[in-house]
């Protein structure tokens, strides 16, 4: 009997550090995965495409302007939202393969990306539709006055495409036999070449970038279109069949978009892509200048950039390592006494979304052996636990808050929320707390 007990104790001691405690949050994470499975769309009568999750876009502009109705949320299917939810789930799985529900959820999203494919290698934020016999893009459900139809016919953007290619990379990692149709790689060279050819070089900057001192950064620009193209209509309200157009005919540089691109290029081992080093330099400068809130034109949050940079570093962006201590200090400084993080007073508080982004960043950047870091991480976990909700089926979720916004002119007035994305992010934080921190 003593020999058996002794063998049992030896086997426990031989386990890797943290293995015994691993799984503390499994029940919570699995409950949130059940929520995400229950609300993943089928694409049959729900106004979405297969494998998506619902997101809502809300305009707070006066209804008379014609961009939605004031404070009315509209369903807004986009490959961007579908991809970032699926990518977050895949990242949980790669850290914690015991969550065996995840691969099927990620795989299901595959069927919902093709309505957004514009050509052999570019994807659109909005689904395609026809206007006077011409293919255009635009919101599927949101009300737009006719004058705005052309304005919404935007070209493909780097953020949507980096998220979608990150999804394809993860899908290929889960199923190596799968490759995007017509390509021999989940991240084909034709796409990275397009990125390299759409950079902030030898041009007069967007006014928003100019105000922050972001001039000829060499970083990647948001829209994958030549702003000087003769094919792009210059009239703000030109009908959609006149062609896609960059809003206000001026491309821009967004720090979060660039961090997301670095994440993809690092994952795919394409650090030699022209613009990669310049983007690293640009993001290091943004952190040095503490421009967390304003540098993200499409991300009105204090914590979207730390999260995206931490994620890129986690996936191999070593060039961002010099920012680690500054990012950690910033996150510690911004944490509230109750463990939450609050967004800027210039925007909505968004405590849950802010805390999910900030805590994930902290758990990816911090030192699990550092007592101060553990203290702040535990406070953040406690706060997010306090915000957990349950649906009618008893499944756990966290209410969606603002994660994305429209143009710089509507940075606070036209915003997207997704309970699925906020829930996936929060589940990722608890998974990191288990696998990396043994909290």
Protein architecture, described:
This is Squalene cyclase C-terminal domain-containing protein. Residues 1-21 form the signal peptide. The protein has a single domain (20-435), classed as Glycosyltransferase (Alpha/alpha barrel), CATH 1.50.10.20. Helices cover 40% and strands 6% of the residues. The chain has helices at residues 2-13, 26-38, 79-95, 102-109, 158-174, 189-196, 207-211, 255-267, 276-288, 304-314, 324-334, 351-365, 371-386, 419-435; strands at 56-59, 73-75, 128-131, 134-137, 389-390, 396-397, 402-405, 414-417. The two termini are 34 Å apart. It is globular, with a radius of gyration of 22 Å. It has 14 helices and 8 strands. By secondary structure, it is α+β, with helices and mostly antiparallel strands. The strands form 3 sheets. Strands 2-1-8-7 form a 4-stranded antiparallel β-sheet.
Descriptive terms for the model:
439 residues; alpha+beta; Glycosyltransferase; two-stranded antiparallel ribbon; 40% helix; disordered N terminus
Quick recap:
This protein has 439 residues and is an alpha+beta fold. The chain has helices spanning 2-13, 26-38, 79-95, 102-109, 158-174, 189-196, 207-211, 255-267, 276-288, 304-314, 324-334, 351-365, 371-386, 419-435; strands at 56-59, 73-75, 128-131, 134-137, 389-390, 396-397, 402-405, 414-417.
SSE arrangement:
Layout: H1 2-13, H2 26-38, E1 56-59, E2 73-75, H3 79-95, H4 102-109, E3 128-131, E4 134-137, H5 158-174, H6 189-196, H7 207-211, H8 255-267, H9 276-288, H10 304-314, H11 324-334, H12 351-365, H13 371-386, E5 389-390, E6 396-397, E7 402-405, E8 414-417, H14 419-435
Antiparallel strand pairs: 1-2, 1-8, 3-4, 5-6, 7-8
């Amino acid at each position: 009997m003593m020999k058996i007990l002794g063998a049992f104790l030896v086997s426990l001691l031989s386990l890797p550090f943290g293995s015994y405690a691993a799984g503390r949050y499994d029940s919570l994470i699995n409950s949130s995965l059940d929520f995400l499975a229950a609300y993943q769309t089928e694409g049959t009568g729900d106004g979405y495409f297969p494998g998506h999750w619902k997101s809502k876009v809300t305009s707070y502009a006066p209804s008379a302007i014609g961009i939605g109705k004031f404070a009315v949320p509209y369903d807004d299917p986009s490959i961007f939202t579908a991809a970032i939810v699926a990518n977050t789930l895949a990242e949980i799985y790669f850290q914690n393969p015991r969550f065996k529900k995840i691969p099927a959820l990620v795989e299901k999203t595959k069927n919902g990306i093709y309505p957004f494919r514009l050509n052999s290698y570019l994807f659109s934020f909005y689904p395609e539709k026809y206007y006077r016999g011409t293919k255009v893009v635009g919101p599927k459900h949101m009300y737009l006055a006719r004058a705005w139809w052309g304005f919404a016919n935007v070209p493909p953007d780097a953020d949507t495409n980096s998220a979608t290619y990150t999804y394809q990379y993860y899908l290929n990692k889960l199923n190596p036999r799968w490759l995007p149709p017509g390509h021999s790689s989940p991240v084909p060279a034709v796409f990275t070449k397009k990125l390299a050819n759409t950079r902030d070089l030898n041009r007069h900057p967007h006014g928003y970038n100019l105000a922050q001192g972001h001039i000829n950064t060499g970083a990647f620009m948001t829209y994958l279109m030549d702003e000087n193209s003769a094919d792009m209509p210059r009239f703000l309200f030109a009908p959609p069949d006149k062609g896609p157009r960059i809003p206000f005919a001026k491309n821009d540089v967004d720090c979060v978009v660039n961090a997301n691109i670095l994440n993809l290029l690092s994952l795919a081992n394409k650090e030699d892509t022209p613009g990669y080093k310049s983007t690293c330099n640009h993001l290091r400068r943004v952190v040095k200048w503490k421009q967390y809130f304003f540098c993200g034109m499409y991300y009105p949050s204090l914590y979207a950039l730390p999260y995206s940079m931490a994620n890129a570093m986690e996936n191999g962006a070593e060039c961002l390592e010099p920012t680690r201590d500054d990012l950690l200090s910033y996150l510690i400084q911004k944490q509230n006494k109750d463990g939450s993080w609050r967004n800027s007073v210039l925007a909505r508080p968004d405590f849950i979304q802010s805390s999910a982004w900030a805590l994930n960043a902290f758990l990816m950047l911090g030192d699990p052996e550092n007592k101060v870091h553990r203290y702040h991480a535990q406070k953040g976990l406690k706060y997010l636990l306090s915000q957990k909700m349950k649906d009618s089926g008893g499944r756990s979720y966290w209410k969606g808050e603002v994660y994305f916004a429209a143009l710089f002119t509507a940075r606070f007035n036209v915003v997207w929320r997704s309970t699925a994305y906020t829930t996936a992010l929060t589940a990722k934080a608890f998974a990191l707390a288990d696998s990396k921190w043994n909290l």
